[in-house]
Amino acid sequence: MNNQPPQQSDKPCCQHPRRTFLTRLSIGLSAVIGLVITMPVIGYVLAPIFKKPKEKWRAVGKLEDFKVGGFVLVQYEDPSPVAWAGVTATAGAWLRRVSETEFIAFSINCRHLGCPVRWVDDPKLFMCPCHGGVYYEDGTVAAGPPPEPLQKITVRVRNGQVEVQTIPTPLTLTTLT
Amino acid sequence: MSNNSLKRTWNWIDNRIGFTDYIVPLMVHLVPDNARWWYIFGSATLCAFIVQVVTGIGLAMSYVPGGEDTYESLKYITDVAPLGSLVRGMHYYGASAMVMLAVIHMVQVFMHATYKYPREMNWMSGVVLLFVVLGMAFTGQLLRWDANGVWSVTVAAEMAGRTPYIGPTLAHFMLGGETVGGSTITRFFAMHVFIMPAIIIAGIVLHMLLIMRHGISEMPDVNEPVDPDTYKEAYEERIQKTGVPFWPVAMWRDVLFSTVIVGVIMACSIFLGPPALDPPPNPSSINANPLPDWYFLWYFAVLSLLPPQLETWVILGVPVVGFIVLFFLPLISNKGHRAPSKRPWAGGAVIFISMAFIVLTIYGYKKPWSPDFGVKELPASVVGTDKGPLAEGAKLMHIKGCLYCHDIGGYGGHRGPELTEIGKLLTRDDIIIRINNGGHNMPAFASSMSSVELNLIVDFLLTRGVTPEEDVPKNPTQ
Ligand code: FES
Asked: Taking every annotated instance into account, which residue ranges of this chain make up the domain Cytochrome c (chain B) (predicted)?
């Protein structure tokens, strides 16, 4: 058997056309294998970014359950839940019945970095537990680092049900309505 | 089995797997004889990683990535499974150990400038490893899928969302959807269990191959700055003359130190136990107080201290610039002196960064960054009375949330200035203006307080720090 490496020549293509072809073939096929394996997975992993957020309305309770007054925390199902999500498919909003006909709602996410703000009824303020952001009852910033007012959520009443329009996180990207 | 047949069996195996041919030369390769206790941190980091792999596999046997079940499975691991709490504890403290050791190892390498020629890529692969380890620490914190985990991922998504152009894409990629939920946890699980460990293992293999290729560096010598033209031969020559076999002459120190590390990890998980689980991961539950694990707390403090205009720059800049600077460091300076005494800037940088880290971490722990939602009403002993307008004013301090941020006589939060002596410092008008208009970190109360309430509060505040005889206003203004 000849174990000697083949002689190098200036033009390997012409010296060893078969060898060159096989080299190219192997490299090419390896690339094909790689692509075939990875493309579906990459597409699958990236899919959530390309999904257009759907406008989803979620019922949060009957009209008569809400009294005119301060904000209450309402919970509803995440706009795009997966079957196994359980309690983690819950989203929340601060909802207030301002008058008989008028509702107002805010996302519970602080506009600073998204922590959950709490409504404190007496001083009529939303307070954030993370870095001390504070908002007035109209959602405008009262103190602390938040750069923008709380995100408003659209509310409507349909067939005696109060419904809120879900919005995606991160909120910093959502433009104010 | 007789000794002889044992030997024969071993020879048969050795002949086939090539232990003596391939592994033994690696083990006994020559290392500088002055490579002593300074060099134990790298191997200890590796040891901590092994702890993570083993305990992680154990945890994965019971951990259910997805929704509600995740929390239940964590509770099962912590409370029910035999030795579950111990294994979870080891994984938790192992993570801390790994982060800490990786950083110490890096500081040591930096101080001794081991990253210079020809070991540039040793350093670069190490920097990548460090960042992936931090990624592991971060995703791991989220896999503890409780209230804190949910809110940390929200915060992380908000931070990622601030990246110019690709922010939203990045955030939604991270969350696996539009909101934090079931697909987020499975995504983080895959990152934490498959992707990042694979990168780490590949990184470690490369890191070790490079160590074998270039040899362990010597302690810096002031008289021998690195010169790429001559370094390799000089190193080879010295190592042949004075080197000692890695196994066992140098390695026993690594093994001893690693034993100590494993002992500490074990002791912490036995005596301190794994971190307690917060309430279940419900993204609509507002009763959370999200705080990162200790190694990221400095960053949390920075984010709280920054003026808003700088924030986005820092959020995105610190990790990216940090990585770039560290990664390219050996390309900027790969020759010259290695001795710390000749590199005062390097020493200064290390001291400055460690001080900043310590100060910010302490700050992160100590400073109340937020209002204290759980404050109690002021007791009569502090107010001085339990009826009358004074007591009412004191009560309003609680109702209106003033006490969330202000401390009076040891009761109340610390987000705002203490008001124990405020009666001595400010006049009635000053106080009214501040309450009505707010300012800096204080909300304006003008619209949420009646003038009666305002006056009761002001009257009460004016008595603070003033002795009872002078204090009670004769005619509280209405
Ligand atoms: S997240 Fe609310 S103040 Fe920072």
From this structure: 388-465
DSSP E strands, B143-302: 244-245
Q: What is the ipTM of this complex?
A: 0.84
Residue appearing with tokens 């002078």: B470
Q: Is B153 on the interface with A (CB under 8 A)?
A: no
- Considering the domain architecture, whether residues A89 and A135 belong to the same structural domain is answered as yes
Q: Using CA positions, which residue lies closest to atom 1 of ligand 1?
A: A113
| Number of domains within chain A | 2
Q: Which residues of B44-83 are buried (b: 16+ CB within 10 A; e: fewer)?
A: bbbbbbebbeebbebbeeebbbbbbbbbebbeebbeebee
**CB contact, 8 Å: A48 with chain B?**
yes
Q: Show the domain range for A83.
A: 56-166
Of the partner residues A88, A123, A169, the one whose CB lies closest to the CB of residue B178: A169
Angstrom distance (rounded) from CA A127 to CA B15: 71
Nearest to B182 among A49, A82, A116 (CB): A82
Same domain, B324 and B431: no
How close B142 gets to chain A, by Cα (Å)? 13
Give chain B's domain count. 2
Q: Is the CB of A116 under 6 A from ligand 1?
A: no
**Sequence-separated (6 or more) residues with CB below 8 Å from residue B451:** B478
- Per-residue pLDDT 10s for chain B (478 aa) are 688 999 999 999 999 999 999 999 999 999 998 878 888 999 999 999 999 999 999 999 999 988 788 999 999 999 999 999 999 999 999 999 999 999 999 999 999 999 999 999 999 999 999 999 999 999 999 999 888 888 888 888 888 888 888 888 888 889 888 888 888 999 999 999 999 999 999 999 999 999 999 999 989 988 889 999 999 999 999 999 999 999 889 899 999 999 999 999 999 999 999 998 888 888 888 877 788 888 988 988 888 788 777 888 888 888 999 999 999 999 998 888 999 999 999 999 999 999 999 999 998 887 777 788 888 888 888 888 888 888 888 888 888 888 888 888 888 888 888 888 888 888 888 888 888 888 777 888 888 888 889 989 988 888 888 776 554 554 544 4
* Listed residues B309, B339, B366: the one ending a domain: B366
Domain for residue A171, yes or no? Answer: no
Can you tell me the distance from the alpha carbon of B331 to that of B220, in angstroms, rounded to the nearest whole number? 19
Interchain contact B387–A (C-beta under 8 A): no
Say yes or no: A101 and A131 in one domain: yes
B313 in contact with A at a CB cutoff of 8 Å? no
Could B157 and A114 be called an inter-chain contact, meaning their C-beta atoms sit closer than 8 Å?
yes
Residue A3 located in a structural domain: no
